[in-house]
Amino acid sequence: RYVAMAEILEERGIALMALDSRGHGRSEGKRGHTPSYDVLLSDIGLLIRLVEARHPELPVFLYGHSLGGNLVINYALRRGAHLAGMVATGPWLGLTKELSWKRAFFGRLVEPFWPSLTFSTMSDRDDEEREARADLDPDLFHDFISLRMLLSARRAGRWAVKHADRLRIRTLLIHGELDPVTSPEITRQFGERAGELCTVEILSGMYHNVHEEDDQVVRRIADWLIYRVAELGNGT
Q1: Per DSSP, which regions of 170-211 are E strands?
Q2: pTM over 0.70
Q3: Any bridge partners for residue 171, and if so which?
Q4: Which residues have a Cβ under 8 Å from the Cβ of 121 and sit 6 or more positions away?
Q5: Residue 126 pLDDT
Q6: Coil, strand or helix: which one is 19?
Q7: Is the Cα dihedral 221, 222, 227, 229 positive or negative?
Q8: Disulfide check for 20: which of 27, 190, 225, 236 has CB 3.0–4.6 Å away?
Q9: What separation in angstroms does the CA of 223 have from each of 9, 12, 68?
Q10: Which DSSP helix (H) or strand (E) runs through 71?
């Protein structure tokens, strides 16, 4: 899903390295599950160390979408003060339609005993999102999430918003105004609490996968990265 995005970034002279999170794509593990949230953050740390070893002369930025946005934001807040910057699209800091208290209570009750209990998220997606995923390779893409993944990401999103003032790196957050999955309003709240280091752009008429819906979104990200690299060159 990120090939077109990678090609646009490459055209602008931006190198990109990516990983499939555990339980996704070609990475190992039960689909949609993780042993813990901290393991996912540590995997990002491994990727960064690999990037720094291969390209020690280049500034390093993090990018993530949806759950990936949740992860890169939490990484930046907890472990990433040394990074040059961060970009997230449609970050999962909160869901557009939050879990009912009954579901959340049931999840918290069951998670310690059955953390890998997995269910489909498709019932929570609108028709446009379903259509967008229809032609994706089922061996690489899925709609499963485990209790551990769901509840740990939910907790991490809330923690990030509460501690947004810990942000120490330049950040660009882009969210579709009509996102049926993750909440643009909570992204806006994060930006307000994070302060001047964080730029939040809520795009009118756009949905969840803004980086796929319009190439201009990716070009905007490229412009921001290039400008930020220029700032670093000027010592700012």
Answers
A1: 171-176, 198-203
A2: yes
A3: 86, 198
A4: 143, 144, 145
A5: 52
A6: coil
A7: positive
A8: 27
A9: 10, 9, 21
A10: helix 67-78
Which candidate, 33, 41, 50, 47, places its Cα nearest to that of 71?
41
Identity at 168, one-letter amino acid code = R
Check residue 99 and report its DSSP letter.
P
* Closest among 164, 175, 196 to 73, alpha carbons compared: 164
Looking up tokens 């990109």, which residue turns up? 16
> At a CB cut-off of 8 Å and minimum separation 6, what does 91 contact?
64, 65, 66, 69, 70, 72, 73, 157, 173, 175, 182, 187, 190
Question: What's the confidence (pLDDT) of residue 130?
Answer: 53
User: Are the beta carbons of 147 and 176 closer than 8 angstroms?
Assistant: no
Q: Percent helix, strand and coil across the chain, each rounded to 5?
A: 45, 15, 40
Give one word for 28, left, alpha or beta, with left for phi > 0 and alpha for psi -120 to 50: beta
The confidence score (pLDDT) of residue 131 equals 52
Cross-strand partners of 222? none
Per-residue pLDDT tens digits for 3-38: 899 999 999 999 999 998 888 888 888 888 888 999
Query: What b-and-e string marks burial along 80-106, b requiring 16 or more CB atoms within 10 Å of the CB?
Result: beebbbbbbbbbbbbbbeeeeeeeeee
CB atoms within 10 A of CB 223: 13
Q: Which stretches of the chain score pLDDT less than 70? A: 100-102, 105-107, 114, 122-136, 138-139, 234-236
Phi, psi angles (nearest 5°) of residue 187 = -60, -40
Residue 42's pLDDT is: 96
